[in-house]
Structure formats: C-alpha cells, structure tokens
C-alpha cells in the first residue's frame, strides 16, 4: 500500500486551499485592478464630484485591490474617443451625457426629447422605473453595460442676444451635442445645429463659429466659462442633460465576484450622493453666473414658454417610433408624482 508522508499531506492540503480561495490568494500578492474613469467636465460639477467620490470610496473600501484613476476635463479623451477607448479596453468607466449614446441604442435618445420631463424628480422616477432600467441595459449588444444614472440638470439656452421666443433663434448657429434628436430641435427653430465636442465650445463661441448653444446645464455653462463669451442666457429648461455611468460589459463581468459586488455597492452610494446634490449645484452655478455680471439671465413667462414648447415638441412625434411610444408615455407619466 502506498505510504503518505507528513510533507506530502501538508503540500496537498496547501494546494486544495489555494485552489479554493483564488481571490484571496491573488489579492495578497497581486497588483491592484486599475479602472480608468475618463470624462469631459470640470471637477466642481455633479459628474466631476461623483467621479472623485467614487475614487475616494474605492480607495477606502477596496484598498490595494482596486485603484480608480480619474481623468477630468477631456484630459484623456473627448467623449467620442472615450467611447471607442471603452470598447477597446483602454478605459473602463465613462459617464457620457446620454446625448452621446444614440449610436448604440435608439431608446436612449428618449432623454434628448424636448420638454419631456418637468424637473429632475420626474427624471429620477422614470430612471428608477421599468423604462429607465430597460434603457440602462439597451447597449449590451455593443458590449456596453449601464451601471447607473447620474443627474446633471435641466438644459438652458445661451446666445449673444436674448432668446425670448423661438423667432429669436432663427438663423443662429447653435452648438448641440452629437445627437440627432437635439439637432432636429434646432432645425425646428429654423436655426442651424452645429455638433461640436464639449471642449471646443468656448473657443467656438469666442470666434463666432457658433452664435450660442441649444441647451446645457448651469454647472457646465459656468465651469466652462461660457458666460464670458455669451451675453444672454434663457432659463428655458428645454430638456434634461443626464448621464449614464457605463463600463465595458466583458471587463465588468470578468472582475472577481467580491470586487464587483463591492463596486456595485459603492456606485449605488455615489449615485445617491450625485443625484441628491445635482439640483443644488446647478442653482449655485446659476447664481455664480448672475453674480459674475456681464450676462443677463432671462426667465420666460408662461406664454413664451408655451411658444418654445410648441416650436420644439414636433420632434417627439418625429422620433416616437424609433425610441418607442411606450417608453415616451412612461416618461411623460413620470411628471405626475
Ligand atoms: C456636452 O457635451 O455638452 C456635455 O455632454 C458635457 C457633459 O459631459 O456634461
């Protein structure tokens, strides 16, 4: 009969333990998993703060297992290059405005429709409901996984002349994000949409390549200093600019289970913080613009607001089949609390 020595038994037990606990065994000696998070806005905006909080919490809770590197202000990629880099695995996290995701999902274009949501509370209700959750998963065929929705805020129009009625925008060249829905809204005003990367807008306004822009948030307007090159802003609330935190689906599914679970928990915590603070951050930025002087912020009366709505909302019908009438209905219903 074969004799087992004490040494061989210890060795065999050691092998079994190492095989049973691969995660722990690796974590002790291996390098941290590096997650690059690239975005295009400033740190003192809802997304900028969210990225920094994510980095901080991951450092606190996952120590040497995972390292988040944040690249703000288009310092690594603009949104278009960032999306390509996500697909090739050169970056692992992005949170683009959903206006940049229409090429991967027709339903995500819903968020670009004009005057669809009355306020951020309605946006939250929709995002947390079935429709929002469906859109979050709508890009998996492209290997893009939606992890969460992060708020920025409602869109405001700016130019170098007061935009009080849709007629005021006629003939103007207005910057929009690369979204067919946003471009269509500008066409409805008989103005000219110019798709332009976020980082190029200030210069575009300064040199007259564009006369203004068709809707962005107070926090983006102020942190990009567009108020230095735009004399008039209209509190139009003509749409929402919200983000989807996205990752490369294969990368995410390939993470060790315990790491992915902890990251999901941290993301839920960060999402709550971003969404709780976004409204206030935007109101502060609006006030900062007013305090900086040199720019007039116009509020619209009911009749003027109706004119803008009437001018832009044919776009809802135009994109209804592409986006999905049921989703649009659910979004409209989210305005009733
Ligand atoms: C824009 O391009 O205007 C925005 O999508 C930028 C951003 O990320 O908020």
From TrEMBL:
InterPro entries in the cross-refs: DctP_fam, TRAP_DctP, TRAP_DctP_sf
Gene3D superfamilies: Bacterial extracellular solute-binding protein, family 7 (3.40.190.170)
Keywords assigned: Signal, Transport
Signal peptide boundaries: 1-27
Superkingdom: Bacteria
Coiled-coil portions: none
NCBIfam families in the record: dctP, TRAP_S1
Similarity comment: family membership: Belongs to the bacterial solute-binding protein 7 family.
Name under which the protein is recorded: DctP family TRAP transporter solute-binding subunit
